[in-house]
TrEMBL record:
Superkingdom per UniProt: Eukaryota
The organism of origin for this protein: Picathartes gymnocephalus (White-necked rockfowl)
Sorted UniProt keywords: Repeat
Repeat keyword on record: yes
Protein name: WDR64 protein
Alphabetical list of InterPro entries matching this protein: WD-EF-hand_domain (IPR051242), WD40/YVTN_repeat-like_dom_sf (IPR015943), WD40_repeat_dom_sf (IPR036322)
Length: 342
């Protein structure tokens, strides 16, 4: 109780110090302030704050707090910012963190081996919890599967066998156990399980528009097929179902020299619908809602959330507009909210 009373007193004195400094700085900016012995500069602010709170505050937080006041007198920072951020006690934490943080995160593991070369970037990361691995896709065509231990991995470089189109997204097909990736002009289906060759799989082409994103639709327990959605640069969303039989029946006779067999896209029934008037930036299927969502920088049809049947029946879809569009979104099942970022 005494500590609480002492802290309240110290906090009250600190808030008075801040108010006095804001008043002083406001007068200085208007040319009405006359310097005297009671002037609060950084050294005095630092010394007073350190005296009030002792080692509970850090030098960098005092400096940041002071700078925040000086640069914007109208926006008064919250007093708790002087302490940085608080960390809570958790039995799950293996060791106390040296830095105080608002968000408690588990210890990170770094993959020391580089899976992409210089001037290449990761365009997609997909976690597959059931199989305990992670899939990454790089822009220049490297698909990589990391095992649970993060020590072993195997990858396929699409640019070695296919055209030089950049990969724009990837996902995992849970029933067929394939990695699906989209490029500007093709769909790649990689059989990562194949022990005969790491370059075993299929390429579907031609695709008329530039594909920008892909996501798996987890609806069926049918182990012989998978469904996924794709978005392109013309605002179209595609629905495509692949079966084991398709790999056998719909291969093209061309390009036999390639280990990646070619699938003729025109032999597939691919429903599509124009939902946006600009690029489809992201697409996702939410199993809990039984709905798919897509977003675009389109100001009118910025975000769409509806049943995948809308891609085939062309009934009105649920959508809303956001100035300058939507670049990203996510769904929180616990809070039952969807959050968008523009």
């Amino acid at each position: 109780t005494l500590e609480l009373i002492d802290f309240k007193n110290a906090l009250e004195q600190f808030q008075n110090l801040v108010e006095k400094m804001i008043t002083q700085k406001t007068k200085e900016s208007s040319g009405l302030y006359t310097k005297d012995d009671d002037e609060i500069d950084y050294d005095k602010f630092y010394t007073t704050t350190r005296t009030l709170f002792g080692p509970a505050v850090k030098d960098q937080n005092i400096q940041a707090f002071f700078s925040k006041i000086v640069t914007n007198l109208d926006e008064r920072p919250e007093w708790l910012e002087i302490f940085g951020c608080f960390t809570g006690e958790s039995d799950d934490m293996p060791s106390p963190s040296k830095e105080s943080m608002v968000f408690l995160v588990s210890e990170k593991q770094q993959i020391a081996h580089s899976v992409v070369k210089r001037k290449d970037v990761i365009k997609g990361i997909v976690k597959v919890p059931l199989l305990h691995f992670t899939v990454t896709a790089s822009q220049r065509g490297v698909l990589t599967v990391f095992s649970k231990q993060r020590k072993s991995f195997f990858s396929y470089s699409s640019c070695l066998h296919q055209d030089t189109a950049w990969i724009t997204g990837c996902d995992f097909l849970p029933n067929l156990k394939y990695i699906v990736a989209v490029t500007e002009s093709t769909v790649i289906l990689w059989d990562y399980k194949s022990k005969e060759s790491q370059d075993n799989g299929f390429v579907m082409k031609p695709m008329k528009n530039c594909l920008l994103c892909v996501c798996t639709v987890t609806m069926s327990d049918n182990l012989a097929k998978d469904t996924f959605l794709m978005g392109d640069d013309k605002g179209y969303v595609y629905l495509l179902t692949i079966t084991n039989d398709d790999f056998i029946m719909k291969q093209s006779k061309a390009e036999k020299e390639s280990q990646f067999k070619v699938l003729d896209s025109e032999s597939f029934d691919i429903p599509k619908r124009k939902l946006h008037d600009d690029w489809v930036g992201k697409i996702k299927y939410f199993s809990a809602l039984k709905r798919f969502a897509s977003c675009s920088t389109d100001c009118i049809n910025s975000f769409v959330l509806d049943d995948i049947k809308r891609l085939e029946d062309h009934l009105p879809v649920k959508e809303f507009s956001v100035p300058k569009g939507v670049n990203a979104f996510t769904y929180c099942g616990k809070a039952k909210v969807i959050v968008t970022g523009g």
